[in-house]
Amino acid sequence: PSTHPSPLLPGISTYRQKLHCFLFTADIATMQLCANKLDKKDFFGKSDPFLVFYRSNEDGTFTICHKTEVIKNTLNPVWQPFTIPVRALCNGDYDRTVKVDVYDWDRDGSHDFIGEFTTSYRELSRGQNQFNVYEVLNPKKKGKKKKYINSGTVSPPTSPISFSKEQTYHPSLYYIVNVCNPSQPTSLHYMSPYQMNAYAMALKAVGEIIQDYDSDKLFPAYGFGAKLPPDGKISHAFPLGGEDESPNCVGIEGVLEAYFQSLRTVQLYGPTNFAPVINKVANCAAEITDGSQYFVLLMITDGVISDMVQTKEAVVNAASLPLSIIIVGVGPAEFDAMEELDGDEVRVSSRGRLAERDIVQFVPFRDYIDRSGNQVLSMARLAKDVLAEIPDQLLSFMKSRGIEPRPALSTSPLPELHRHI
């Protein structure tokens, strides 16, 4: 039952809630690769090759961070230049292993594996040279054929190549743009005088809806993955207003002000760990489990995560608490890790334990950008989907604990929403 239903959050008016939000950024890299003499995989043609980039994690696993487009019917493809956050590729560690798989695209999705190679961002950033020619190796073929050398090579383009009219050559590009500087238009955090960046739009879209469920309108707002002044101490959960300041911001406008101010004072820095901030909010939620308050953690990210094992454990532990986690992905990166945390299809597990409830909702912001440039419409679409699962998640916790809604009052104010940003 709801005494004050919301068009976006029906049925959540009789419980207090708290919204926590955390933000981080990354540098952007732009690069291009081509291949030479790849294996022929198609019976009636050549191959339809594409590349899949993987970032190596601290636990020895790999996470997809980029896929190129498919180039049809060629063994010597030149892929278009692409951009990717440096954090997504290597989490700021330029010598971290980057694995690249080469596939032949098939219409039915059963893409044929051509081979693989490993590199690093430091090597890739050097551009075209003799050390940047990578042998594409297929371990199975190498084990079966004594005379096997490789399944082709991959390198930056060296000179224009003849193409059909549908294809054009683009020169090899290698550069890093400091997106931590909000004055640069290429930054994900660019503070344009004419429009909001994706981080600000996500904050405003979600916050303006959910803040109406909180009586004090205070948002504890934090950042993570940065070196803090004056001594450069690395923190994964620092108040946006400053380490010595209260994390509370007055309303969404206060959050936005603290967010932009923090970009001017801190140095964004890896690794990027999610677990500390999830555990921080979970500790708050663990103190009030009688149903009088419900916590919502909003995390805005470019897709990088350095502590996936610890984050899964944090989510599993938090699933028994009055807490929901909203993750909004911004930028061009692949968000496979975020999709894995969203338990819609497969419930998150850690150390053999399944999460008691599905408490994570992930959406990529790029899917909600209106092509006409209408930011209001983009924000409305984002808010609708990003908040869609909160009512069921809240009710699932209350029902699991046998907590009944409080009786409706004749003149009942809107319930308090606790929010941290």
TrEMBL record:
CDD domains: C2B_Copine. This is Copine family member 9. One of its GO terms (cellular component) is plasma membrane. The keyword Ligase does not apply. The keyword Repeat applies. Residues 5-134 form the C2 domain. The gene is CPNE9. InterPro entries: C2_dom (IPR000008), C2_domain_sf (IPR035892), C2B_Copine (IPR037768), Copine (IPR045052), Copine_C (IPR010734), vWFA_dom_sf (IPR036465). GO terms for biological process: cellular response to calcium ion. It comes from the Eukaryota. Keywords: Calcium, Metal-binding, Repeat. GO terms for molecular function: calcium-dependent phospholipid binding; metal ion binding. Pfam families: C2, Copine.
